[in-house]
Specification:
With 137 residues, the chain is an all-alpha fold. Helix content is 69%, strand content 0%.
């Protein structure tokens, strides 16, 4: 019986890892659609952005923060008036559980920083960490 419980637990952990990997892959693919333009616009380092998305190793430099501003603009989360369109965040959270998506949205969408780059960075980091945490529960 103990062996069965251990194997079940191990399989559950493995399935969570695959789900996390899929979520990260989805984020990597989404970022890739705007990455060349946003690297050019922000001056961010490609390796730094890759580490943020793939590994959750967050940078705090202004260029990286402005990369996320460009990213949100390209996804229409920031409109032409440089305002956050909070409801547009929902479609990019990347989870199927609507209750979890709503929880992440309510926590992350209202975040604001010292400027639009800082605000974008805070929202992106919040969505990323909350979504990963939700998948690993």
């Amino acid at each position: 019986m103990i062996t069965f419980v251990f194997i079940t637990f191990a399989l559950l952990q493995l399935s969570n890892q695959q789900t996390v990997e899929q979520l990260i892959d989805d984020y990597v693919n989404l970022v890739a659609t705007v990455k060349p333009d946003c690297l050019k616009e922000s001056g961010a380092d490609s390796d730094v952005i890759d580490a943020e998305v793939r590994l959750g190793k967050f940078a705090w430099d202004q260029n990286s923060k402005c990369f996320w501003k460009c990213y949100l603009k390209k996804l229409n989360i920031i409109n032409d008036n440089d305002e956050i369109v909070e409801k547009n965040i929902i479609q990019y959270i990347g989870l199927s559980d609507k209750e979890v998506v709503d929880k992440i949205y309510k926590k992350c969408a209202p975040l604001r920083g010292s400027d639009l780059c800082d605000t974008s960075d805070k929202i992106c980091k919040c969505v990323y960490t909350e979504a990963i945490a939700a998948v690993t529960k």
